[in-house]
């Protein structure tokens, strides 16, 4: 029986992971579940799975969690530090599905404990790339990619960069794939979170709409698959059926296909190196009929250009890009700035804040905090 921990258990990835685990109670035992504010969702999941500990990040909600878990065998804890401690308990397999840089310290703690970490939380790897990869290597921990594109590449990847010509990340193009810049100017948060193919949390849905998601994924791929930035490409594929491709020097291109259901890549990391059954709908290519592909447009989607530049520049640029983007997306979702302001704010922060490359986790956290202050100052100007 394998022990599992789910960081971000109440979110879109977290609940898909729980769904798989709860279908196979004889194979998995839940060590820890964490959430930020959703006490009811966390307590219900802990009761269903018999989790050893449930942690709520917002410490003010710990009394409510204790009450919701009264009479159960699950221990309750609260606060950001308690999430890090839960991650460090060293489950056999840990799902990293906290959204944003808030997930970085828990991921690093899980890696330091030598866990196998299934990584959905791309923002952590984007910001702390080299530091996280080195930490995993030093602890003998394993990072398995959950993000659908990276999981697809992982399934097609022969780890010899000399054999790989290109890694091609597919992108749906998001809800505004065909929209003009003028049309995008006035879109609302409700329109932006309506992804055409995937059901996901609000932040990543907005990232898909700006295509910053694909930019973050380029940086994520750079760290997971060391073939060099020049061999990473993006291709728009509106159906999200081909999840990504690896082109080899002999002209072979391998792709992984499936219906857009994250339970498939999650199950791949949960059972790896074996396979397990999932309830994901099977692919019916005859019913789909045709698959379409087109080039990405970095003029209408400047976030992609900014992320590519940050990837090429390296150093602190990806951490600054990510922090500014997280701040701007939160402001957009709160109705404080417009949709096109997101990339504009990120570009301005990148232009005015150029710290040295981080060499440790504390550096990454400091750069992240400072970049958010820069973004906040600029957003105050936009909204004044
Ligand atoms: N959804 C998807 O299909 C995919 C997601 N990803 C990545 O996976 C990650 C999770 O995405 P998704 O599941 O969509 O996000 P959701 O917003 O649905 O869920 C986020 C989870 O993180 C918790 N959380 C939020 N803020 C904090 C915080 N400050 N401290 C601790 N926990 C926190 C939430 O708790 P609470 O519910 O209490 O707020 C929730 O459990 C993201 O990095 C995303 O980019 C990658 C590929 C696909
Ligand atoms: C499910 C998943 O992995 C998301 O990252 C998804 O890829 C988002 O779709 P976009 O291709 O629109 O960014
Ligand atoms: Mn993805």
UniProtKB/TrEMBL annotation:
A molecular function (GO) held by this record is: 1-deoxy-D-xylulose-5-phosphate reductoisomerase activity
Protein known as: 1-deoxy-D-xylulose 5-phosphate reductoisomerase
Q: Which cofactor does it need?
A: Mg(2+); Mn(2+)
**Which residues are noted in the entry as 1-deoxy-D-xylulose 5-phosphate-binding?**
122, 148-149, 172, 195, 208, 213-214, 217
Q: What class of enzyme is it?
A: oxidoreductase
Q: Where is the 1-deoxy-D-xylulose 5-phosphate reductoisomerase C-terminal domain?
A: 143-225
Q: Which residues form the 1-deoxy-D-xylulose 5-phosphate reductoisomerase N-terminal domain?
A: 4-129
Query: What NCBIfam families would the database entry show?
Result: Dxr (TIGR00243), PRK12464.1 (NF009114)
Q: Which residues bind Mn(2+)?
A: 147, 149, 217
Specify the species: Sphingomonas morindae
The annotated pathway is: Isoprenoid biosynthesis; isopentenyl diphosphate biosynthesis via DXP pathway; isopentenyl diphosphate from 1-deoxy-D-xylulose 5-phosphate: step 1/6
